[in-house]
């Protein structure tokens, strides 16, 4: 008998460990880890990587996806360049139990667990898939097994709340099946995830933390509560792997969709196999305006511009230039360009009722009846004889018109935003998710092109209220945030557009934006402008590295459409940012521009802590580049250092 009991107890310890925690998770009782299967003991897992996973989990917890999401909301997740270990992500525990993120290996597995009848709070415990479910649960420390507590203490990992201790495991159904009374977690089996599964979880958590706030609720006056519905969503985000795992991938792209979508496999690689001397064949598509060969810069007729038939991104004058370009440059980037082109549709901002492709600035301005009007004059070269910031108030001979040059009701008025709930003026800081929400708040029609210019102040606002926690906190506490805004050009003529920021700030703190750059004209340098008590603008002519020490210390540095690879003065400015150890954010037109920017930032010794991500407040108007079809938008993408 003693031998039999000892064997039973040994089996119990082997499966469950010795912990007696009884916390409730989204799948029932929280299982303890076995004492000899800590994450630090997984082959290939370093302590530093475990700490990075915990930091990512903490960021997810802070973003609180459980506030809006319900168990019937499923997300498709694709981690490019990785084995398809999982397919669906699922947030549970918002109403009952500890909050958790579940990852399913297939859409069919997810459907087994998604609740289909009220109360829609817990997965179907009778149908845990045979392939298992990876589970990230946030719980109290008292519910953790002792070895897990010791690991957390020994590593000093980041925990952001008493009920926010991450617990990662893989749950499998009981070997003896399921009885009629339901799935019994006490007889389930649990295992520690593999290194590949932890990497996949890291990428998923980093991407979904950025993606879920962007969901737009459809029919907000309709279904609410646990049956809330969201518009279809598809976003591809870049996730930077921690330095200790950089040998695996440096940056990976993660596609998040809601609801999950079927993802076709790549038909063929865009890089020829070793020894294959062939290059991609020429494919011809019609174009409305002349294009330019990427190899020789020869102008190509708009209706016969050949392009790489694999990535569809690069324009050539013919097969000879294409073959040479493949050998010299394109062979190493074709696959990356192909991935960028696959995001073309999702980067398009839907819903606007004006032309959203700018082939030539003057032509586009004529189409929208804004050529030569107000602030729009700076969008083309017709007024280049005037320095930035010194456009005449009204063009000679033109009728007197406001800075927007638009009919009443087509541009934001100089009035507070109203609370649609009927409470009158808004007093709190408004956190916007995108253009559609802003247009709705202002009552603007989607035929209004003002987003094209508002992209600059709104990108700044997005950075200080959403991307940078420190400045968001200062504003929430009613304090002033000092912004060093580097390299302004057209913005110096678009100051009226920045006057919308105080209305978004509401009753929160204020902004002091110092615009510093060589293009600031002498008559404007040293001047200040203000919009009430919430926004102060100061102008300084000169290079940032020469002026930074004499300016008020910044809370954040911002450079929009930075073009780090295009200006020889940037290394000095980056050194000034490094010396100040201040958070800095940069926007740029395209992903290749951002890739070049990352190289320069790393060369300057700056750590990229906010990876390249599509900017929700990019201009809705796509620019056509002569030799490339890569998606190109003003303020298209954002990345950050020292955040």
From TrEMBL:
PROSITE patterns: ZF_MYND_1, ZF_MYND_2. Residues 293-334 form the MYND-type domain. GO terms for molecular function: zinc ion binding. Keywords: Metal-binding, Zinc, Zinc-finger. InterPro entries: Mss51-like_C, Znf_MYND. SUPFAM superfamilies: HIT/MYND zinc finger-like. Signal peptide: none annotated. This is MYND-type domain-containing protein.
């Amino acid at each position: 008998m003693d031998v039999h009991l000892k064997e039973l107890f040994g089996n119990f310890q082997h499966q469950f460990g010795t912990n007696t925690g009884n916390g409730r998770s989204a799948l029932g009782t929280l299982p303890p880890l076995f004492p000899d299967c800590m994450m630090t003991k997984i082959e290939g897992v370093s302590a530093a990587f475990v700490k990075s996973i915990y930091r990512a989990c903490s960021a997810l917890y802070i973003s609180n996806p459980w506030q809006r999401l319900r168990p019937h909301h499923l997300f498709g997740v694709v981690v490019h360049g990785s084995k398809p270990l999982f397919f669906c992500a699922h947030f549970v525990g918002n109403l009952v139990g500890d909050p958790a993120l579940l990852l399913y290996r297939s859409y069919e597995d997810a459907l087994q667990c998604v609740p289909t009848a009220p109360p829609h709070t817990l997965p179907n415990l009778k149908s845990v898939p045979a392939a298992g479910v990876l589970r990230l649960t946030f719980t109290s420390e008292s519910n953790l097994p002792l070895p897990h507590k010791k690991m957390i203490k020994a590593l000093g990992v980041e925990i952001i709340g008493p009920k926010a201790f991450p617990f990662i495991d893989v749950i499998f159904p009981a070997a003896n099946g399921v009885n009629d009374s339901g799935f019994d977690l006490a007889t389930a089996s649990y295992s520690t995830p593999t290194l590949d599964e932890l990497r996949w979880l890291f990428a998923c958590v980093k991407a979904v933390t950025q993606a879920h706030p962007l969901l737009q609720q459809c029919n907000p006056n309709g279904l609410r509560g646990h049956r809330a519905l969201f518009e279809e969503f598809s976003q591809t985000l870049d996730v930077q792997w921690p330095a200790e795992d950089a040998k695996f991938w440096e940056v990976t792209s993660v596609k998040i969709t809601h609801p999950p979508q079927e993802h076709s496999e790549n038909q063929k690689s865009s890089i020829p196999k070793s020894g294959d001397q062939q290059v991609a064949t020429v494919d011809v598509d019609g174009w409305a305006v002349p294009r330019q060969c990427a190899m020789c810069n020869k102008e190509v007729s708009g209706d016969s511009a050949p392009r790489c038939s694999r990535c569809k991104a690069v324009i050539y004058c013919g097969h000879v230039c294409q073959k040479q370009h493949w050998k010299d440059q394109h062979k190493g980037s074709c696959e990356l360009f192909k991935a960028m082109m696959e995001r073309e549709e999702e980067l398009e901002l839907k819903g606007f009722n004006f032309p959203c492709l700018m082939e030539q600035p003057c032509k586009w301005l004529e189409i929208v009846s804004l050529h030569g009007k107000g602030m729009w004059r700076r969008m083309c070269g017709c007024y280049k004889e005037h320095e930035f910031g010194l456009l005449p108030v009204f063009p000679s001979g033109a009728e007197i018109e406001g800075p927007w040059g638009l009919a009443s009701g087509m541009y934001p008025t100089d009035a507070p935003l109203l609370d649609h709930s009927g409470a009158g003026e808004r007093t709190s800081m408004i956190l916007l998710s995108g253009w559609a929400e802003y247009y709705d708040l202002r009552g603007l029609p989607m035929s209004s092109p003002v987003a094209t210019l508002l992209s600059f102040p709104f990108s700044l606002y997005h950075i200080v209220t959403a991307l940078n926690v420190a400045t968001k906190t200062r504003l929430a506490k009613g304090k002033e945030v000092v912004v060093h805004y580097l390299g302004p050009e057209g913005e110096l003529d678009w100051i009226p557009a920045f006057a919308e920021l105080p209305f978004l700030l509401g009753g929160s703190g204020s902004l002091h934006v110092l615009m510093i750059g060589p293009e600031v004209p002498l008559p404007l340098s040293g001047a200040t402008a203000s919009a009430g008590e919430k926004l102060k603008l100061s102008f300084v002519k000169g290079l940032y590295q020469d002026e930074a020490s004499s300016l008020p210390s910044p809370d954040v540095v911002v450079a929009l459409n930075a073009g780090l690879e295009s200006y020889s003065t940037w290394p000095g400015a980056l050194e000034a940012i490094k010396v100040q150890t201040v958070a800095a954010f940069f926007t740029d037109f395209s992903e290749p521009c951002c890739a070049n920017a990352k190289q320069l930032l790393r060369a300057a010794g700056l750590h990229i802590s906010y990876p390249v991500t599509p900017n929700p407040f990019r201009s809705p108007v796509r620019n056509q580049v002569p030799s490339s079809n890569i998606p190109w938008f003003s303020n298209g993408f954002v990345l950050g250092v020292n955040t």
